[in-house]
Amino acid sequence: MRKSLLMTLAMVLVASAAYASDAPAAAGAAVGPTAAWATAIGMAVAAGLCGLGQGMGLKAACEGTARNPEAGGKLTVTLILGLAFIESLAIYALVVNLILLFVKPLGA
Amino acid sequence: MMRETLVRKIDALLYRRGFALADARKLMRNQILLAAGGSALALMGTGFSTWGLSFAAGTLIISVNFWWLAKAAQQLVKVRDGAVFTLLTLFYGRLVLTGVAIAALVAWLGASVFGLLAGLSTVVINATLWGVLQIRHKVPATGNGKEA
Q1: Quick one: which of B126, B105, B130 has its CA closest to B34?
Q2: Is the CB of residue A87 less than 8 Å from the CB of residue A10?
Q3: Per-residue confidence at B119, pLDDT binned at 50, 70, 90?
Q4: Which residues of chain A neighbour B104 with C-beta distances below 8 Å?
Q5: CA A3 to CA B68: how far, in whole Å?
Q6: How many domains does chain A have?
Q7: Residue B144 has pLDDT above 70, yes or no
Q8: From the CB of residue B138, how many other CB atoms can be counted at a distance below 10 Å?
Q9: Smallest CA–CA separation between B146 and chain A, in Å?
Q10: ipTM strictly over 0.90?
Q11: Scanning A16, B10, B116, B122, which has the fewest C-beta atoms within 10 Å of its C-beta?
Q12: What is the distance in angstroms between the Cα of A44 and the nearest Cα belonging to chain B?
């Protein structure tokens, strides 16, 4: 069931990209809408996965602190570092997506 | 002497602002010093060019983000219920604000993308340096084999 759902999603995504490339203005104008789709999907994936990672990190830190309250200080610093790394990933993805959207390195 | 006074003043400010944990305070202080020093170097070195200004803007954005994150994390570890929801709400709120700021810089103010990325990387540099220094402090010095 899950496999067929993933297959359907992949086919829909590939088909929409293929139709976008067959758009009327084939000489470069199609890059715009495709880039918009790519940035939207890219940012959604990045934000979702980074949120998931942050949640899992905090959950583990809370559990660790509950088990061993004396290690709370060290766990908090490690948590801050982990969260900072994850957040940096999200911000890098954001910058790359904004470059694709506004700077348009792939064309107009 | 001057450096010690500056460090003490920053530490006192951070303590007043809720950074009760000594290591978190040290981490935030390093980030502030790295951001300020890096921005000053970039601005002076490039003669207040677009790259230098973009670098300074990047360091400012990421430092504000890190401040908010570190302060929230210190509180959230102690929370029993709803910590993950609060963390995610804060994360997405920060991401939206950062997105608006970076979009304004890239799209309307014509900031240098590479300068911005370099500025945003200061927090990664700070965290990596912190990790490396911690590992170096933990690993005992290797002897000459005659200890036993």
Answers
A1: B126
A2: no
A3: very high
A4: none
A5: 40
A6: 1
A7: no
A8: 7
A9: 34
A10: no
A11: A16
A12: 11
* Buried-state track B26-43, b at ≥16 Cβ within 10 A, e below 16: bbbbbbbebbbebbeebb
DSSP state of B107: I
Domain boundaries, chain B: 2-138
CB contact under 8 A, A51 and B127: no
- Tokens at A71, concatenated: 């290690």
- Let me know: does B117 contact B18? Beta carbons within 8 Å: no
Q: How far is CA A2 from CA A9, A49, B43, B121, in A?
A: 11, 19, 53, 38
Task: Give the range with max mean pLDDT: A74-78, B54-58, B75-79.
Answer: B54-58
**Contact at CB, B84 and A55, closer than 8 angstroms:** yes
Amino acid letter, residue B2: M
What pLDDT shows up at residue B76?
85
Supply A104's token pair. 């348009």
Domain with residue A47: its CATH number is 1.20.20.10
**Whole-number average pLDDT of chain A:** 79
Quick check: A76 and B131 CB within 8 A?
no
Q: How many CA atoms within 13 Å lie on the side-chain side of A62?
A: 18
Report yes or no on A89 lying in a domain: yes
Residue B131 has pLDDT above 90, yes or no: no
Compute how many other C-beta atoms are within 10 angstroms of the C-beta atom of residue A38: 16
Structural domain boundaries enclosing A39? 27-103
**Rounded-to-integer distance, Cα B27 and Cα B9, Å:** 15
Q: According to DSSP H, which parts of chain A are helical? A: 2-21, 31-67, 72-98
Tokens of B137: 């402090």
Report if residue A75 sits inside a domain. Answer: yes
The label of the residue with tokens 């973009």 reads B54
Does B79 contact A at CB distance below 8 Å? Answer: yes
